[in-house]
Amino acid sequence: MQLKLTEVKSKQESGYLYGILTNEFDAIEKEIKILYLENLSKALPAGFLGYILLKKDNHFINYDIPNLFTIDEPFTFNSNQIIIKIDFTENVIWQIIDLSKNHIDLYLTGKCTQFCIACPQPQKFRKDLEPKNEALMISKVLINQKKHINISGGEPTFNKSYFVAVLKALQSNSPESNLQILTNALSFSKEAFILEMVEQGIVFEKLFFSIAIYGSNPEIQDFATGLDGSFYKLENAIQNINNHKAKIELRIVINKINLYDLENISKLIVEKYHDKITRVIFMGLEMSGDAEVNHEKVWIPFNEHKPFLLNSIIYLLTHNINVLLYNYPLCYLPKQFWSLAKDSISYWKKYFHYGCDKCQVKSMCAGFFESTLPYIEQVTPILIQKDKHEVKTC
């Protein structure tokens, strides 16, 4: 949703206002809600964070009411189910979060402390957001929510004090939400940062960390991350996080650099991290950003993954470690592994190859990242023989 403002009246120094959009006069938690009204026939109720009216009712613009805005045309929305951002500088209203969904993504910054060769983030986005405090402002609006909240970047801990402020707001305002942190974990390689977080009131054991591991040894890990010493820092971080009782999953992004090392990575995980992690996730590449720039170094077709990937999965499962597959199309997997493959690609990035049209399990499939499609030469549609209860490829 994007709406153009016709008039703006605000006492705020900031050029942005965040709130939950409602059309209910008697809404609860008015202080975080922006009231939208059509055909206004009575006085505006007090106590709301802001007000959006139609231009024909703009005589209210002269009232002593903070944060009052007008638009030209009426619109429809699900009341109390979306968070909007009002941008005073551009005179635009944006829908930024759909509260009817079970999960929320909070993006803290594009900056990072590593230089991963297969990073899908374009270099031009590796900077602070504008406004820089957007995630914190959203966190202050998320009151009494029961959501799964992904906290990501860049590297979300790049600005440690800001990262802690966001966590503190989320745990205070929505203590029943689950917080998942997508991180390279370098910031946690020294226990002092964890102790500082706990001292500031963060309930560390309620956090869930998703950490990328690229290789079974310093040579591969440090080359993939572009940072000397990252392998040993990762070891320290996993130990520190586990010592403070937070949950950990390890993510392995499959590429040309580590494909032949997958089984060694799995053995390393079993030997060193078996009792410290909840699961391992193997991930297909998103071929954008640095991954696209370095495609000759990182891209390897899905159909070349099979022996290395399947052996790694089996090894982990036989050692009682849970395994999932993200960003992985079903036609590259034996049927007995389908249950591990999740529909993990965000809907705005998810596409299918034209060859997928005949596939009878397309609705179950993760598909491809749009940026990855140019690298897919062909797919093998799956046909289900119902009478024989068999799965065949055509």
What keywords describe this structure?
single chain; 394 residues; alpha/beta; TIM Barrel; 2 domains; eight-stranded parallel sheet; seven-stranded mixed beta barrel; 19 strands; 24% strand
Would you mind describing this structure in some detail?
31% of the residues are buried. The radius of gyration is 24 Å and the shape is globular. It is built from nine helices and 19 strands. It starts with a strand and ends with a strand. The strands form four sheets. It has an eight-stranded parallel beta sheet with strand order 8-9-10-11-12-13-14-15, with helices on one face. It has a seven-stranded mixed barrel with strand order 1-5-4-3-2-6-7. By secondary structure, it is of the alpha/beta class. The chain has two domains: 97 residues, no CATH class; 224 residues, TIM Barrel (Alpha-Beta Barrel), CATH 3.20.20.
